[in-house]
Amino acid sequence: METTMSALSRFVLLLFLSMATLSTALAQPATDAASNYPSRQIRIVYPYAAGGPGDIVARIVAAELSKRWHQSVIVETKPGAGGNIAMDYVARSRPDGYTLVVAPTANLVINQHLYPNLHYDPFKNFTPLTLMVSIDNMLVVNDSIPAHNVKELAAYAKANPGKLTYGSSGIGTQPHLAGEMFKRATGIDMLHVPYNGTADATTAILGGHITALFTQVSAVAPLIKAGKLHAIGIGSDKRSPLLPNVPTLQEQGQGLTGFEAVSIYALMAPSGTPAPVVKKLSAEVIAILHTPAVEKKITGMGMNVVADTPEQLAELMRKESARYAKIIKDEKIKLQ
Predict the structure, then answer these.
(1) Which run of H or of E encompasses 27?
(2) What pLDDT, on the 0 to 100 scale, is given for residue 254?
């Protein structure tokens, strides 16, 4: 009996040791992934043409990562299909931390509600790293319109029913949706006129072809200062340093309490990227963005450094996705 118990004890001990060894072996790849990362070139994909805000920030971050990690970090633009080609490409990439994407607002929280056959899910196919920057949007009107705030615009709209129009960079874009949310909040009636990009929409409002335009502050600040456009308000919870004398839309009441129209640019990795790699990448990029020289460079271009945690980004995505889904459904917005 004692011999049997002794043999059983040895068996249990050997089983325990084997399980401990297996557990260590299974944990080893994740540990190695972080300690050896990065061991080769990293690619940051941008879903649009070079020169946009997300591309600029990506290149700033890439240059700093290269210096810190002594590895090549490149930015690759892959435009097409409203950014969906690049997002799908990265979603299908190996989840090892060597292929990342800078995802703008549309690709994070809007397109999944507009494209019925989207090949990626921003929540299921990606892992958040950090929300790098945000950019304030604002509402402006043509200089022929006697309005410099929401109250005056509402009065003009009431006196001129059916005559107001607002432009955007395209159907389903954030400026379009911001315009619809503004109309719903204020009761101001404006007909939407989509254009093929921000440049065309800006040309249209300067030429008097449309009344109003939602666009990024940095794109129109010089035109406002030159008296070519009238500022109505900033679509953020705080004033823009580029136009400190222009109030936010929230400040003006008129049903706009809590109104926001802010563009965001997030750094994402494919889902399944090892947690230690996600942690290392996120921490390093956040540290870079909070470096005084980098922050000064970015804010000088009209962008706001956010650099939040992956958890904060995930929560913001859920909130913004629900907000845009509602306006798209309520207004029956569809791509043509």
Answers:
(1) helix 2-35
(2) 81
Same structural domain, 195 and 288: no
| 220 and 171 inside one domain | yes
**105 occurs within a structural domain:** yes
- pTM of the predicted model, to two decimals? 0.86
Domain end, chosen from 252, 275, 310, is at 252
State the number of CA atoms in the 13 A half-sphere of 222 facing the CB.
Answer: 5
Largest CA-CA distance found in the chain, in angstroms, rounded? 102
Are 281 and 130 spatial neighbours (Cβ–Cβ below 8 Å)?
A: no
- Per the CB < 8 A criterion, the answer to whether 132 and 310 are in contact is no
Q: How many CB atoms lie within 10 A of CB 329?
A: 10
Give Cα separations from 108 to 104, 264, 296, 329 (angstroms).
Answer: 6, 9, 26, 17
- In 3D space, the residue among 109, 80, 120, 119 whose CA is nearest the CA of residue 177 turns out to be 109
User: Do 177 and 145 lie in a common domain?
Assistant: yes
pLDDT in tens, 239-278: 999 999 999 999 998 889 999 999 999 999 999 999 999 9
Distances (CA, A) of 156 to 44, 147, 227: 47, 7, 19
